Amino acid sequence: MKMRKKADLPTKICPVCNRPFAWRKKWERDWENVVYCSDACRAASKRGQVQAGA
Fold it and tell me: Pfam families attached here (predicted)?
């Protein structure tokens, strides 16, 4: 597989921090189900707390 530039990777917006995050190799098989940019955002959503963005 050819290398892709980071700008060419698919991105999503995290519903907790509202920041964009890019596709990662570890999410390759499950990209459709990835919702949060990090474990911290996933935990914050389950607690019902919203993190301050940036």
Answer: DUF2256
Tens digits of residue pLDDT in 1-54: 677 787 788 999 999 999 999 999 999 899 999 999 999 999 999 887 655 554
Cα 24 to Cα 36: distance, rounded to the nearest angstrom: 12
Nearest Cα residue to 51 out of 16, 4, 12:
16
Predicted TM-score of the model (pTM):
0.71
Q: Determine how many CB atoms are found less than 10 A away from the CB of residue 46.
A: 9
Q: Where are the domains of the chain?
A: 11-45
In angstroms, the CA 52 to CA 16 distance is: 9
The amino acid that residue 49 corresponds to is Q
